[in-house]
Design brief:
There is one protein chain. α5 packs across α12 and α6 packs antiparallel against α7. 44% of the residues are buried. The chain has a 7-stranded mixed β-sheet, sandwiched between helices. The protein is built from 15 helices and 7 strands. The two termini are 25 Å apart. This is Alpha/beta hydrolase. Keywords: Hydrolase.
């Protein structure tokens, strides 16, 4: 009977409060809740779900909640504003829907900023914050990307790409175009990928590409533009906020990929010093999508910290 209940639970999708908010749960609702906050803007949770990460994490004894923010992914909403306030409303909807008093927030990439600001505003709702390849000092990340690609193109004597870098550097640093330019350069140089993927990670990516989740990997190209139009906090350093959260007694954990090309060594050391050595993990042969690149190590570390 219990197994039947769990299987039913895995298949539920909610559209709540007229917001068309995609939410899917994994595991037993009586276990410790973890809410996964995906990257973006213009992201979704399909990779976290489609590589079985959500399901495998639930098997470690957690009630895992995956969702797509309003207007992103499977949560279609033409009236979405893509502000942090709106993202907070989505999270509060999840708390209300599942009668959660507290939950761990597991945040990836841009989701780290959403989760950090939410934890500052609603500390009573957060039992722990886990930063997984999460952004925390945006301008430092952009600077690191641009400095790194300039070195690559200078070595190659690629004047065309050096001109492109210069063009990006001259853009308004608080604009969607600047953000897009930086991350396009990072992607073109494989900053988000590991050079030597494991057989396990290659299989996870292949399985994902063949799954229904990949078919619903919806990207709203207008999301970043609307975010930068509507949200004033669009290029921030969240480390002072993280220190504030930590001072309130909320445990903060950080797990990053050693080969994640968008973060400098200085940045990684700073987040390690902030959370503390026992709350930090750096996974080798691992880049930005660490829950795929090194899934077993990722799951082991999360369970070790939270159980």
């Amino acid at each position: 009977m219990k197994n039947i209940f769990l299987l039913l639970l895995l298949s539920l999708t909610f559209f709540v409060n007229g917001q068309k908010l995609y939410i899917k749960t994994y595991g037993n609702k009586n276990d410790k809740p973890i809410i996964f906050v995906h990257g973006g803007p213009s992201g979704n949770a399909t990779l976290f779900e489609g590589t079985h990460t959500a399901e495998e994490l639930s098997k470690k004894g957690f009630f895992v909640i995956a969702y797509d923010r309003r207007g992103e992914g499977r949560s279609a909403d033409p009236s979405a504003t893509f502000t942090y306030h709106e993202a907070f409303q989505d999270l509060n909807t999840i708390y209300k829907t599942y009668n959660l008093k507290k939950a761990t927030i597991l945040a990836h990439s841009f989701g780290g900023l959403v989760a950090t600001l939410y934890s500052e505003k609603y500390p009573q709702n957060v039992s722990a914050l886990v930063l997984a390849g999460a952004l925390f000092s945006q301008q430092e990340t952009y600077n690191h990307i641009l400095d790194s690609v300039k070195k690559i193109y200078t070595k190659k004597n690629d004047s065309v790409m050096l001109a492109k870098v210069a063009n990006v550097e001259n853009l308004n640093k608080n604009s969607a175009e600047y953000r897009k330019g930086c991350f396009e350069l990072a992607s073109e140089n494989n900053f988000f990928k590991i050079p030597n993927p494991t057989e396990e990670s290659k299989k996870l990516y292949v399985d994902y590409d063949a799954s229904e989740f990949f078919k619903t990997n919806i990207r709203n190209k207008n999301a970043p533009l609307l975010f930068y139009k509507n949200e004033k906090q669009n290029n921030i350093d969240s480390r002072p906020i993280l220190n504030k959260i930590k001072s309130k007694g909320i445990p903060i954990y950080a797990i990053y990929g050693k080969q994640d090309g968008i973060f400098s060594t200085k940045q990684i050391n700073s987040i390690k010093n902030l959370v503390g050595e026992n709350h930090f993990s750096l996974l080798d042969n691992c880049s930005h999508y660490l829950f795929v690149d090194q899934q077993n190590e990722f799951l082991f570390q999360i369970k070790k910290w939270l159980k």
